[in-house]
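Much of what follows relies on a compact textual record of a protein's fold. Think of the row as the fold of the chain written in a discrete alphabet. An example makes this concrete, so a full record is given next.


***
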Amino acid sequence: MNRRAMMKAGIAAGAIAALGGGRLLAGSAKGAGSGDFEFTLPDSEWKRRLSPMAYRVLRHEATERPFSSPLNHEKRKGIYACAGCDLPLYSSDAKYDSGTGWPSFWKPLPGAIGTKEDRRLFTTRTEVHCRRCGGHLGHVFKDGPPPTGLRYCMNGVALKFIPA
């Protein structure tokens, strides 16, 4: 192996390691909901209850494609609940168009979510999960509108809309 080939292999191995061994698009192998949550199901039941994409997002921390969720354009009054356990998470009153391609909110309902540190994309982000089942919902960023200045950027497939 010549020097150039060795350098390319080293760069590729470093990139794969930095991206968590390919988990960037697929989600983590450990999965969401690891820990003690009040609503739990065996993995086989999660697979049965959820669409394949909702399962990958909620249970394995994947991310849906931007602009792919019909909830991104939902304008009616109502509640956005966890697609895994039906816990109400966000009010339509806190929804806004962030332009990112995912449903975005400036605040969750009280006691609805939990957070944890996520270091998978060369930076530290704050991951958001359902407080009751631990399902991965998305991330929160400090670039949202007043009054909180926060943007809860959620995967639409992790939510279900309940009209008022």
